[in-house]
């Protein structure tokens, strides 16, 4: 059974940083592209960032460029999301997802095959 477990969320002040982690129980983790999405209350799930299987390609939503960094450690079966200069509008549940198309960095949520349960990030002003 595939499991994706996010961690690292919390409550912070605006301007602070957080690093989210997603541990993945896939034996062939390195064969998957990975993505981060988020969903705020009353809003649709939105794309945050994605990374290809050997981290050669990354993609970010425009509002996260320059503030967020996605990375992965294939030896640890883990993908990370470093979030700097957090804003109240970054408040959401953050989800990681795995895509069997290892070259893909798509923003389309339907393309991802496996999802974690999410971790809450709350940013206060």
């Amino acid at each position: 059974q595939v499991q994706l477990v996010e961690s690292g969320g919390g409550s912070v002040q605006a301007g602070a940083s957080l690093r989210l982690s997603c541990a993945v129980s896939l034996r062939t983790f390195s064969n998957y592209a990975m993505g981060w999405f988020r969903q705020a209350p009353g809003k649709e799930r939105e794309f945050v960032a994605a990374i290809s299987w050997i981290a050669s390609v990354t993609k970010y939503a425009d509002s996260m460029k320059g503030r967020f960094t996605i990375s992965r450690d294939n030896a640890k079966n883990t993908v990370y999301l470093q979030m700097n200069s957090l804003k109240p509008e970054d408040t959401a549940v953050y989800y990681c997802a795995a895509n069997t198309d290892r070259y893909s960095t798509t923003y389309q949520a339907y393309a991802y095959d496996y999802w974690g349960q999410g971790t809450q990030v709350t940013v206060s002003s």
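The chain has a mean pLDDT of 95. The two ends are 40 Å apart (CA to CA).
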